[in-house]
Give the backbone structure.
Amino acid sequence: MEPEIERDLIGRLRIGDAEAFDAIYDAYRPRLYAYLLRMSRHGDVAEDLLEETWLRLISHPPPAGPETNLAAWLFTVARNLFVSWSRWRLLDAERVGELARITLRAAPPAGPLEEISRGERERALEGALGRLPARAREALLLVGVEGMTPAEAAAVCGIGPEAMRARLMRARRLLAREMREGEAKEER
Amino acid sequence: MRTPEDPDPRRDPELGALASLPLPDLRPEGAALLRARCRAALEARGGRGGSWAALCDRVLVPAAAAILGGGVLLATAVRAAAILAAAVA
């Protein structure tokens, strides 16, 4: 979406224009849902976090200034909600003594992701992505899927651009290794 | 902006494969329900917050920017005049 169009939509949303909300919703819903689903690996969690993201946009919309990047704003909100959910989940797991069983690394594959994978290669890639640590996965999702620059992804994650470049490099290596190991397992 | 050391997603094997993954989405009825809930929240937020936001965007922020900009311009002009006066004297 062109920055001028986004600014206009944000300005209209701020004065309560429902059509402006619809335009933003249609443009970003699949992207945000995909990000949240691939991060949480749970369809129902992704839906809850997605709804909360939209409610934040409605209750506290970003300013309609030239410096506002709507995609970065929405992904930052979605990411913060995911991080809060992850912390809550870990605390909850600790409370019931299940911490050892539940880790982000061993997240189960999500149903909707398996449903939409068109071929073996895509299923393998989704599987490998799901086995990565959350930080590596989010770097790959923001840069690889969303097409953000490392600097933009760094802003979303609240880290410096250099830290994001290093994280991205490690994440690419990890993904390549997971893919190779997955292929080796299938050959056996 | 992408710097020369940043990987180009189109040429990078891992990132290129990720870019071609299909985007999962809500089922149509789920997407419609969520839209309806959000629109209700937008309506409930009402005109008050919206009007205030509009006032900020269209009047207060530009006015503040103009006052600040004018101040800076005036200060620069005064300083330039002072420098000029000192040079002449």
